[in-house]
């Protein structure tokens, strides 16, 4: 009953009236007066932001803030894969032989999530990590490892919540929400980074057209919310962080083997 009620309520919020209003408000000067409350509510560390709080003119400006240089050191190491974002590791482990993985008791098909059987076959029995970004977090996305971009793709159209309630009671939001994926060829194997949108402000901006990505380089940003899912091929990586762990961009999450 709780799951049904939750899904009905979220479906109601999906109406363009609400999403358009939220989109417009967060980018407007009217939202500026809410910035200090937003910072306090979500315990945002404004001291590490690139600019003082009074230089942000909307909640969107604050949410997409850059950080002061040196705030996120990039962990060195020839085989070190870093977290592309500040996040909580919601789930991690092995993709099953039937090409599914589980988050909050829900099974997700990587064929559906990646939008292609050809793409998903590469990650059968591979390794995955689900990285959830809360409103507290820095929302710019960086490259986990040096690689050459093979493909970009945009999939999905809805914008369900991807927070704890969304993952528990929602209708498979990771594989149904609007998302943008990037597949990289590295010197150790392929990896795919899936950037998943969230409720209301469902925007994911790519910030570079370069094909050669360097570890730690800023490549995209969320306008609000969300989640990054990483996939690696079978027996290619060893995780250095497990689910239930908070992580900062630039810290090691895995190593190539």
Give a verbal description of the structure.
This protein is an alpha+beta fold. It has two domains: 2-63, no CATH class; 80-256, Glucose Permease (Domain IIA) (Distorted Sandwich), CATH 2.70.70. Helices cover 21% and strands 31% of the residues. It has eight helices and 16 strands. It has an eight-stranded antiparallel beta sheet with strand order 11-7-8-9-13-5-2-15. The chain has a three-stranded antiparallel beta sheet with strand order 1-16-14, with no helix packed on it. The protein has a three-stranded antiparallel beta sheet with strand order 6-12-10, with no helix packed on it. Strand 3 (100-103) and strand 4 form a beta hairpin. The longest helix has 12 residues, at 2-13. Its EC number is 4.1.1.65. Its cofactor is pyruvate. GO terms for molecular function: phosphatidylserine decarboxylase activity.
Features:
257 residues; alpha+beta; Glucose Permease (Domain IIA); eight-stranded antiparallel β-sheet; globular
Determine the CATH topology of the largest domain: Glucose Permease (Domain IIA)
Rg from alpha-carbon coordinates: 18 Å
Number of strands: 16
Whole-number mean pLDDT:
85
Keywords: Decarboxylase, Lipid biosynthesis, Lipid metabolism, Lyase, Phospholipid biosynthesis, Phospholipid metabolism, Pyruvate, Zymogen
InterPro entries: PS_Dcarbxylase, PSD-B
Protein name: phosphatidylserine decarboxylase
Pfam family, one: PS_Dcarbxylase
Topology:
Layout: H1 2-13, H2 16-26, H3 35-41, H4 59-63, E1 80-82, E2 87-94, E3 100-103, E4 106-109, H5 110-114, H6 117-121, E5 127-133, E6 140-142, E7 147-155, H7 164-169, H8 173-176, E8 179-185, E9 190-196, E10 204-206, E11 212-213, E12 218-222, E13 226-232, E14 237-239, E15 246-247, E16 252-256
Antiparallel strand pairs: 1-16, 2-5, 2-15, 3-4, 5-13, 6-12, 7-8, 7-11, 8-9, 9-13, 10-12, 14-16
């Amino acid at each position: 009953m709780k799951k049904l009620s939750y899904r009905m309520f979220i479906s109601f919020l999906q109406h363009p009236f609400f999403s358009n209003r939220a989109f417009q408000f967060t980018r407007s000067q009217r939202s500026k007066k809410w910035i200090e409350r937003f910072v306090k509510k979500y315990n945002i560390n404004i001291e590490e932001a690139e600019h003082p709080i009074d230089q942000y003119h909307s909640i969107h400006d604050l949410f997409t803030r850059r950080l002061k240089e040196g705030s996120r050191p990039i962990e060195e190491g020839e085989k070190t894969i870093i977290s592309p974002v500040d996040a909580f590791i919601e789930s991690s482990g092995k993709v099953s032989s039937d090409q599914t993985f589980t988050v909050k008791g829900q099974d997700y098909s990587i064929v559906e999530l990646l939008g292609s059987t050809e793409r998903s076959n590469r990650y059968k029995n591979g390794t995955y990590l689900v990285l959830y970004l809360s409103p507290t977090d820095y929302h710019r996305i960086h490259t986990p490892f040096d690689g050459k971009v093979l493909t970009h793709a945009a999939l999905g159209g809805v914008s369900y919540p991807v927070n704890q309630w969304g993952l528990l009671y929602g209708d498979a939001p990771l594989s149904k929400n609007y998302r943008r994926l990037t597949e990289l060829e590295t010197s150790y194997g392929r990896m795919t980074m899936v950037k998943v949108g969230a409720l209301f402000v469902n925007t994911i901006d790519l910030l570079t057209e370069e094909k050669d990505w360097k570890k730690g380089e800023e490549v995209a940003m969320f306008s609000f919310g969300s989640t990054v899912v990483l996939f690696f091929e079978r027996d290619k990586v060893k995780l250095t962080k497990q689910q239930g762990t908070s992580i900062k961009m630039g810290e090691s999450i895995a190593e190539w083997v």
